[in-house]
Every structure is written in structure tokens, then in C-alpha cells.
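Notes on consecutive records. When two proteins share a document, each keeps its own sequence and its own C-alpha cell line. Never mix them. Below: protein one.
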Amino acid sequence: MLTSKLRSKSNLFLLHRLRTTWVVVLVGTLFSVGIPHAVAMDGDGGVTVKKLKQLSIEDLMEIEVTSVSKRPEKLVETPSAIQVITNEDIRRSGATSIPEALRLAGNLNVAEQNSHDWNISARGFNTDLGNKLLVLIDGRTVYTPLFSGVFWDVQDYLMEDLDRIEVISGPGGTLWGANAVNGVINITTKSAKDTQGVYLDSAAGTELKDAFGVRYGGVIAPGVYFRVYGKYFERDKGDYADGSEAPNSWRMRQGGFRIDSESQPGTTLTFQGDFYSGKEDQEAAGTSDVSGGNLLGRWSRTTSADENTSLQIYYDRTHLAVPKPATNFAAAGILKDDLDTWDLDFQHRARLGERHQFVSGLGYRFTHDVVQNAPSVAFLPARLNRSLFSGFVQDEIKLREDVFLTLGAKLEHNDYTGFETEPNVRLQWNMTPKQMVWSAVSRAVRTPSRIDRDLTEPTGLPAPFPPSILNGGPDFDSETVFAYEMGYRAQLGAKAMVSLAAFYNDYDHIRSTTPGVAGFPTFGFPLTFENNLEGETHGVEFNGTYQLLDHWRLQGSYSLLKESLRVKPGKVDFSNALNETADPENQLSLRSSLDLPSDAEFDAGLRWVDALHNNNGPTPGAVPSYFELDVRIAWHPTRQIELSLVGQNLLHDHHPEYGFPSATREEVGRNIYAKVAWRY
């Protein structure tokens, strides 16, 4: 996990792994036959197969999203390059984790390094230290200030409990702050009211060796609902290019709760928490330990359709213990990091007159980071406290009945670079009730992380050798982008919807690695992080949905990304601007969802990813282009039981999705698993 951030099974085996699943299927089926349908989402029994069917095109366009304006608005009226992954999309995809579910968003690049590490980005800069994408879960920011990215391995929930995932490509700094440079992923879980009764699932297969989830929801008092859940999974070792096993197995367990109160009209209270621990095997580094948890409380008061006030506070703790292997310069050791985060957020939304819809907010975040340094890598100082103050205001102005102008700005103060501003101008024209065009100009920043400022990799060698190989830069400044976007979204009749976006991004002060004094014995070391790169990206993003028949839906997406990153005049970069980009120029995906007779379902997803060229060096085709296919077959023998068989990455025994070509590059293997889900 952190180590990588800083630097085919037999049929008998499959049958053995699936044995437990089929026992659970049999027991669950017999049990469901003999008991009444006690819980009903629609008031007439259990969760019916009809309820599990897909939303209509009209319903999809009417889905309310909150990520773009921090207020509920219909998807058809949202002036942004946004894609929404619904719970139904996740269920029918067979995704077993949040990163897998994010493959459904055509405006993201998702690259799996091994069984527990992913690189995920929007509009470029998808590297080991990818840092330009902000991710939230129920309003809680999950990026780590260690490198301004996301540890995807510890972001987990019961997939059944995810309500939707809103994926915005393009800056979101005005509302969400620093690090929302190229996009925002906002993950929302279901309310406790919508998860009543019992839910059980169990799965087993090849790569996904074993998985189990359980959830129970009930009523504490009138208008007060709760749920508790737990899950466990184990993923098998991956593969090297020659087919041998890579030591990267992964075991995780997680539990949590949520309480929602609607006992007072117009007022909602939410209290929730999650706790996890796991072990991850690492190449040449032993086993890493990960653990943590979070607690969140939110109060919201709605006085009218146009006015709302909310207050949210959360606490988040993460613990990493990562073995660091011995090097030519340093002995083996363990790098430990304990991060505590406290966050307070206040937001108010109100209408002023007939033409102005204001959203404003204030925030404060405090982080306490304690590192136990290893001989081969260290953060200095080892203990660090940081504070972040922020405030924003945004005004949506109705110029006329069908034209809206949005003006907004965010002001932040961090301990590294002081004050940062992130303004936004957005224009929207509703051509018809079902068609809309929009354009936007934004500025966003990526503030320094601990790696940028505080990292050091000691050599352990005496003079005249350099004391370190790589250092953070004491003067490392914020990275910036000016983004220019335009887009079109429409519902074309009752059977089709399309969305198209084009963008141009102008970057400055991008991270570089500057060599030290040249010549023996330093050989240009130590390298120091500086801001010597600049450049541009541009491209287009398309996605569409077509209801071919009442029981057959097709979804497609395409993205084009052009990147040009270079060293500033008079400056230097050790890699000549190649280490900050590892992105496919083209991506294409097509999904088919088909409802079959006898309450059966068939889903298939085909994706094509272009080659990665600039991946840790000037090697063309570092990762060759590839097609990949996922298939899911499901059957509902009763109103409570769902049986499914899922095949992922079916076109290859194993293939790379990221990394520099080497004998130890880990590859993504074919995964076939069976699953049973029971709702009561």
C-alpha cells in the first residue's frame, strides 16, 4: 500500500471456494419459504424483483444531485460534467468494492495495481501519488494529507448500502476546497430509514476468495431509525506477468452504524460511524497493518424549499504500519503513521428575492499527524499539527426564466502557503425543459502535502556522499489550474439521454524533482520537490443511455484526453516532466442490462483502455492497450433471494493496468465468483 505509493486457478479450487456460498443459498431459500414477508420497501412485502428493476430514463434525469451546487437539483438541470452511479448500477455490475464501482463512470480513469491498490483520476495526472481528485463519503473528506490522495483500500461499505455516487470531472474548489482540482467524487450512503430489516450476503470465488456481509435495521422510536452492519472479505494473491503468484493478498473486516432522526418536522439528525482493520501483503516488504474509524454527526433544518441550514462535525482516525524493505542505503524498518482529523462545517442556503439563490459556508479542520520513521524513509518533523480555515459563497442568479449565472468563490488558509482563493463562473441555458447547455471558468489549487514539504529518504552514508536521495521542498508552493469547460445534456424522447463535455485546463507550479549538485559522488542527488512544471490538458467526455426495449438498456461512454506537460524555461526536472502523467489518451465502455424471463438478469460490460506511454519514464506502451469484459447473471427464486454469478476481466488470465514494465510488476487477474443475497 504505502510502499507502492512511495516507490489462474483450477476448477477444483473454484468449486472448493464456492461450497460455502451454495450452502448459504440452500439454507436461505428454505428459510425464506417458511417465513412471512415482514419488511417492505413498498408496503406490500419484501423487496420485490420489480423494485430491483432499473429507473426509467425520465426517472434518471430527475435524480437529485448535490455535489455541483451543494443543494438538491435535478440531473437534467445540473451545469457540470457529472455522472451518477446509482445503487441499481452498482448491484447489476457485480462490483465488490468502491473502486470497482467507479469503473462505471466513463469520466474517470481507474487503474488497478494489485489486489489492494488502485490509481483513480479524472482528466489526467493518474500516478502513484495522484493528488488532484477530492473524494467524500457522506460529507466526510477521505483524502490523506500525507500525499493529498486517497487510500482506496480502506474506503469500504456494504455495496448494498450505497445510495449513489456522484462523479464530477472538472474543478470543484469553489465549494469543496483545495485538492478538488480535476474532479470530485461524492459517495452517499442510504439513510437508516431505507435500510430496514435484515440483509445478508455471501460470496466466494477465485480472486475474491471469501466475502460476507450482514446488516440489520430497525426503529428506535417514531421517526428515529437505525442500522448496524458488518462485513469481511479476503482477496487472493495476484499475478506477475509470467503467471507466478505475487504476494499481495488482502484481508479486511469492517463494521459500523447509522442513526437518522426525522421526529421533528423539517429537522433531521444523523449520527454514524465506521471501524475497520485489515492486513495487506506487500512485494518484498512483508505484511502491512491498516486500521481506523470515523464518527460523524449532522444536523439539518429546512424551513422552506429554498432555505436550509446544516451543521456537520466528524472525527476520523487512520493507522498505517508499513514494512520498509532494506535498500542499498538503509536497513529495513517499519513506517507507522497515525492521523487524527477533526472537521467542522457550517452551511446555509437561502433565496434572496426572486432571482438570487445563495449558498454559503464556513469550515475548520484540524489534523494531528504522528509518524514513526523508518531508516529508508522519514517525515520531518515526525509530529505535525495543521489547521485549515475556509469560507465560501455562491450565488445562482436567474437572468431570465431559462438562463442562470452562477458566481462563487472560496477562501482558505492553510499552514503551508497561507491564503488561497478558488473562484468560479458558470453560465447555464435551459434550451427546453429537457435540454441544457452550460459553460464554466474556474480556478483551483492543490495545496502541499507532507510528501511535498516534509519527506526525506536518507542514504545512511557518510560524507562526501549525499545525506538523502529525495527531499521535500521547504518552499514547495500550491499547484494551480485555470479550467475552461462547456457541455450539453439532454433527454431525447422517452428512451435516450446524452451528455457531452469539452474542457481545456492550464496548469502551473506542478510538482517536479530537481537534482542537486551534479557530479561524483552525488550523481545529482539529493532530488528535491519543486514547482518547475507547467502545461495543458484538453479533451472531450461523452456518455449516453438508450432504452432499446422495456427490458433492455444500453449505456456507453467515451473520453479523449490530450496532455502536454513541460519544464518551465530555465528550470530542470529529473524525469523531464514524465513522472506526473500516466493516462490513456482514449477510453471507451459499453454496458448492457437485460431483464430475462423468470426473474433473471443478464449484464455485461465491455471496456477498452488505450496504452499508457508516460509511466515512470519515456517507455512507449508501458501498459499496452486492452479490452476487458465483465459479465453478471442473476436469478431471483423468491422475493428475498438473489443468486448471481459474476465474471470479471474475462478476456485475460491476467493483464497490467498500471506500472513500469518489470519482472515484479503485478497484474490484474480474472475473477469469477458466486454470490447469494438475502433480504427480509
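Protein two starts on the next line and is unrelated to protein one.
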Amino acid sequence: MSTTTLRTPLVWECGFCDDETASPAEYYPAEVPGAVQLDYARAHGWGPFWLEKDPSVYAFMEDKFWCYRAPLSIGGDQEGAVLVFCGIDYRCRIRVDGDTLYEGEGMFSELRLDVSRYRGAPHTLEVRIWPAPKVPPVREGRDEARESCKPPVSYGWDFQPRLIPLGIWDEAYLEQSAETGLLSCRVAPEVADDLGTAWLDAEVSVTRNTRIAFELWDDEGNRCLRRERQTEDCRAGCRLTVVSPHLWWPAGAGPQRLYTLRVLAREECLIEKTVGFRRVRLVMNAGEWDLPDAFPKTRSTPPITLEINGRKLFAKGSNWVNPDVFPGRVNEETYKQLLSLAADANMNILRVWGGGGVNKEPFFHWCDRLGLMVWQEFPLACNEYPDKPAYLQVLEREAVSIVTRLRSHPCVVLWCGGNELFNAWSGMTDQHHALRLLNKVCYELDRRTPFIMTSPLYGMAHGHYRLLDSPTEEFITKLAEQKNTAYTEFGVPGSNSREYLLQFVTQEELDGCRSISDLNRLMPFMAAPIWPKLFEQTMCYYYDQPGTAEQVLERSADLQGMAYKSLFEEMRRQWPRCSMAVNWCLNAPWPLICSENLIDWPCVPKRAFEDVKAALRPQLASLRIRRQVYPAGGEFTAEVWMLNDAFEEMPGDTVEVIGRCGGQEQELLLWTAQPTPPQSNQRGPGVYWRLPDNGADELTVELRCRQHPEWISVYRYRVKSPEAYRRSMTLNNL
């Protein structure tokens, strides 16, 4: 943010004690943003937390009272002085020289506190933080978080260890200005249905009455509008009207045009905020409202097709989880790297999973600029949240802060109550107080952006998370028969590379492994045993039992990549009935040996990343299959398709299908494809090949487009001897 307002970082130290009235026996340097656990570990010479063989060494810290302190010095010539906390985790009290400025709980509420009366000599700033909230006497795990707004993932999940952060996890600084201090700035954009006019409502609160100017600048450096207002009771607001506004579009649909709002007090710039104009609606999926015979007595399928600026589009992307078990460690560079990879993979949407909470401001900054739509969930997941007034009060305050902060970002196209709240383990309904409250907050503060209660809703799909749906039935086989409106979670496990693993284990340790379970036991955090077990069963189906670590790593990487490619393309073929494909998941918070993610921690793309990138190209030739393993000498059948989710016509082309098995190569098909209209798919002819029985263990099929080589697609499938194939069909261990 470029302003004439001075931001001064604070020099912090922290320590812990056993009750809220005591003082720490020892203080040590603290990094902000960060977490008290990291400060303690650093002060006591611990190694990096991701190499810690037993993360439970951090466990005692979650039950302590923590105290941050810093000297506070305000220049005597600065009329406005505001103490800013962008995020404190979780319950806290803020004092200056013993005077209480704030006390409350919540992780995502920005605090701006007027401290102009403390000008002069240095003062002592103290932030006291209570132990992590828990619901006694429930068993250790996510249920402990069900009466707080703290993300439940930190209490332990199948892909993340139990490490419950506490502390000042987002930016904290002293903001000083010559004229006045800014206490709040609320911005709400809106676009007319005909897209010809846009409005920007802006309101500020300041520390003293003054003259305020609101300026709107476009992304070419032109000032479009300026309005001046005199504050009353230290508040001022205005509505800026923009005729023929530049619109923001998702990646692949149009440019990402943005504006900058500048707020000035007597020509001193207090704040700059990026805003964008777009109209978003959820519309009914094709074929889902044709037969409402039992309505309203039965569950009805809700709309989930995104329409941006009047254009329906296929949303393709991934689920986003916290990039680190300690969110305080995540900085703008981390966000930029991960989000740039998502954009490079031809994604246009990220679902921010409710178990992990809400990201810092740079996440949304880069999503705006990269054209990545954001499905934003509130920090609720896999729990039944109560109707207790104390909980609902905190939830409302957090929700108001989240929506108010993020509604100016055009990338936020969908609000969601949380993850898997209607499932058997949560047991909630749309009548639960928490979800009705979130619906109300979103409607009142950002009705231009749709809200849904949870994911999945009726018609959507979560799962599967493996290649096999049953002992002998592949996921891809059933997928072609399904009629879901959206696939908002699905996954394929795969391990990472040898080079990656050698950052955490020795060569000798690695060479001693014979299975995924062996590798999993080497890692600092052992993922839930279900994932290695499922993966090993899958390996037995597609291959003989691997005998070396090298075989495990190579085969799993290949399986994950090819499976994701086939699944994403099949989901795209189901457009327009299906309007979304979002895999579980993009990234990882911790080094994992076997998981469904596409990018390893901290920012290392797996082999499958390239296969997904190929599958999500706007235009490509695609092969529809029913399985990924075949018997030698058996039949290979498939269909050729042209996939086009771009907004331009896909020209006609000559498609050549080449099959390779062992040393044998054969042209399987030569097809002249007609032009494919925008946002549609074209079904082509079938492909048939009697596979040779020549001892090969892999079948490669290549689709070449003579006029457009960028549309090429390559697929790799498993071939097994008839005897081994029959053994695979009798597996009964899933």
C-alpha cells in the first residue's frame, strides 16, 4: 500500500505463564507475524518444526497463557496514531500501560485502535493470549474446536499433525499520520444487471473530524472520480458512480481490470484499496430443474453454475488448504508462488476449504490479478456447531469482519458456510443457527455475491479419494455414469519424488523402504494410516507388488498423474450438466509421503501437476476411457472428444490416434473433426485395438492434431498378463 501514512513495525518479545493474572518468568524475542510455538522453539534452539519427529513436543504450549510486549513510541507531531492488528489467534486482551484497549476472541477480525493519546514518552504495549479453546471433555481432535471460530484443522486432521497455533499471526504495526488516523474503511462495489453502470460505496471512520476526499483511479493511472465530504461524528461516506466500467473477468474469460480507491484527509493519503467490478450469479445446472415432481417435499438440487458478467463458465481448479501448519509463517511470496502455479495449470477457481480458515490479504491480491475465482468458506468444518449465544456472538463478529474485508475483491465469487456440515458426522441442516446467521451476514453485507450453506449440497460430489471404487471397479468406470452438478472434492493419492524426500530422510533410510507404509513411517508426521493402505492396495491392482523405493515412487507418480488427467477431462465432458471440477487438493501444509495434493510443501510441484495442467487447457483433444488397466491380448476401446471451455470457437482439425504397446506402434484412427463451438464439447468416433500379447506392461495412446499441435494429448495405461489381470479382478482387500 502506497500512502503518506507512516507504518512503524513493533519490536516484540513474548513469554508464557500458567494463569491470566501472572507474568511470564522469562521473555524472549518474538517474530510477528508468527506463532508463540515458533518463538519458543527458536529461543530454546529447537530445529525446524517440520523435521521434528514428534510434533507432540509442542503440545504443552496450547494450554498456556502467552504474553507479548513491545515498547510503543508515538512522535509528538503526529496527530493520528492507530494501532493495527490484522489477526490475533485467538482470545486476547490488549493493554497500554495497564489500560485495556480491547478484549475479545476471534482470529480473523482486524483491530484498529486509537492510541493518539499516548504521544510522547515510550509506553508499554501488552497483548495477552489465552490458551487454545477446547470443548471438554471431548476426545482430542477436531471436535474440540466446535464451539469456537478457530480452524479445526490445527487440532489434527488426516493430512496435518496436531499443532494448535497461538499468537499474532498476521501483520501488526503502528500507523501514524499528520492529520488524522484511520479507524476503518469499508468498501462495497456493485454492478448493474446490464453491466453498463457500477457503484462503489465507501465509508470511513477517523480519529477526529476533518475533510475527506474519495478518489477512484483505473489501472492505467487515470483518476476517474473524486468526491469530498466533511466528517460528522468522525465518519464520512459517499457513493461513486462509474459509467461503462472496466469489468473483472476470471482467467480465460477476459482481462482482470481493477481500480484503486484512495482515501485522503486534507490531501494526506490514509489508505489505498484495490476494487473490482463484476456481476456474479449462481444459475441452475442444465437438466436439473426439468423434473421437480416431488418438489418441495424432497431435496432439490441447488444451482451451482457460475455466471460471471452474464457468461456461464466451467469452473476448474483445486481445493486450497493452509500452506503451512503455522499460518503466521505464510507470507506474500508463498502466496504468489502457489497461486502463480495454479494459474499456470489453467485453473480458474480455488475452493478455500473451511477447515483451514481465511487467508491473509496477499492471497486475495494475487487472485484478483491472476483471475482466480475464490470460493470462500467460513471456518466451520465437520462439526455440529452450537446455537449458544456466546459462540454465535463471536461467529457473527468474525463473519462481519471477513465479509467486510473481502467484498471489495472481485475474485471472491462465492461464500459458503463451511465444509461437510450436512454429513453424518456433522448432522447440521440449513436451519441451524450458525448457518442462518452466516446467510444473514452475507445477504446484508454482500448480496451481490452468492451464498451456499455447505459443500457438498445435494447434486454435488465429495470423493472418491482413490483410484479404485471397489476391489475390482475403477473410479473412472463409474464416473462416466454419474450425473453430478459439481465435483467439489475428489482425489488420487500419489507420492513425491526421490529428490524431494531426500530433504527429510537419508539415502539409506529411503533405500530400505519397500512400500508406501515404510516410506510414511520415515516422515516427520505420519499421515493417517488409511491413505498408505489404500494406496498399497491400488498398487497391487495396477502393478505387481513393488520391490524397491524407486519403483514405489515412480509408479505412484505415474498413476496419480494419469488418473487426475482422465478424471478432470471426464468431468469437463459432462458440461453443462456438470459445471465444476475441483480436486482435493492443490497444496500441502507439511511434508507428506502419500497424499492427493498436486504441490508438495512448501512449493514443489509433483509430476501430476503437469498432467493436470495438460487436462485443463482450454482446448484439447481428449480420450474417454472406462478403465486404466488392460489384459495383454485384450480389447482396448475408447472415444475421441474435442474439449472447448474457451469463449472462442475451436477450429476443425485432423486428429490422428496412435497406439504403442511394447515395440508395436499402430495408427488407430484418423478423424476429421468439425469446428467445436465456444463453451462446448464435441464427441468423436470410437477407437478399438486388440492389444498385442508381447510382454509389454504399458500402453501409450497419443492424440495428434495436425493443424494445432498444442492440442495434443498423451495417455499411459497399465497392461498386465492375463493371469495377473485375473488376480487383480479377485482382490478383496479394499
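For the record: The chain has a mean pLDDT of 93.
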